[in-house]
Amino acid sequence: MSEVLLETRNLKKYFRIKGGKTVRALDDVSITVNKGQTLGVVGESGCGKSTLGRTIIRMYDPTDGTILLNGEDISGKSTKDFRKKLAKSIQMIFQDSFACLNPRM
User: Fold this and answer.
1) What distance in Å separates the CA atoms of residue 76 and residue 11, rounded to the nearest whole number?
2) What is the pTM of this model?
3) What is the model's pLDDT at position 40?
């Protein structure tokens, strides 16, 4: 049986904009990444790729749904110590990876 490293269940992220309207950036996104797997997210501009990544790594608080990292629910936790611990476990590499990674390493 595969070990699940990352899982989202019905993940939603909505943004309020001017005029009281709501933009549904993510709506019921469910993914599973097992140990040894790699996930690539591909889509057209504005489809929610970056929002998905930022929500999973908790730069954004999810509107609804569950995020599990190594079986631990990280959806609602937001203490400073927890964010520091989380940053050591999960990171997002943006499209311009040279801007994110140290070339010496």
Assistant:
1) 12
2) 0.82
3) 86
